[in-house]
Amino acid sequence: MRRPVWSALLGIALIALISPLLRLAVLSLYIFPPLAFLLFFSLPIVYWFVLAIGFAAVAEWIGLRLVRANRLGARLTGAALLIALMLVPVVGLFVMVAVMVVAVGAGTAVLPWQRPLSRHGSLSSR
């Protein structure tokens, strides 16, 4: 995650896009039920998958800023800090909403371009 502001903007756009897609699923329930079945099951699965990848990216980004460790240690440190902040009664809600918005954007940004960039880097280092 290199640009958290762009990830947040992308996350806001994707969260705003979920509602019309679910309304399309409800509408297609009356018009073409197999499409509704596909939308009702694929949208949440894709959303939560992107959210999990984005949460790992945000946790790693925060962990690398706090602890100069390997990627796994940074990811665990960042995740522990985020979960601890989310458990604070009033502040936790704001932290959770902000992290989830950035995580959706970061998960979408990390997913398609992570592998080709790492292959490029490994080929040029040989």
Radius of gyration: 17 Å
Total count of helical runs of at least 4 residues? 4
Largest sheet: none
Kindly state the number of beta strands.
0
Question: Percent of residues in beta strands?
Answer: under 5%
Q: What's the number of domains? A: 1
Runs with pLDDT <50, length 5+? Answer: 121-126
Percent range of helical residues: over 70%
Describe it for me?
By secondary structure, this protein is mainly alpha-helical. The chain has one domain. Helices cover 89% and strands 0% of the residues. The protein has helices at residues 4-31, 33-66, 71-86, 91-124. α2 (33-66) crosses α3 and α2 packs across α4. The chain is elongated, with a radius of gyration of 17 Å. Mean pLDDT is 81; it is low at 121-126.
Primary descriptors:
126 residues; mainly alpha; 4 helices; disordered C terminus
Topology overview:
Layout: H1 4-31, H2 33-66, H3 71-86, H4 91-124
Helix pairs in contact: 1-2, 1-4, 2-3, 2-4, 3-4
Write a concise synopsis of the structure shown.
Helices cover 89% and strands 0% of the residues.
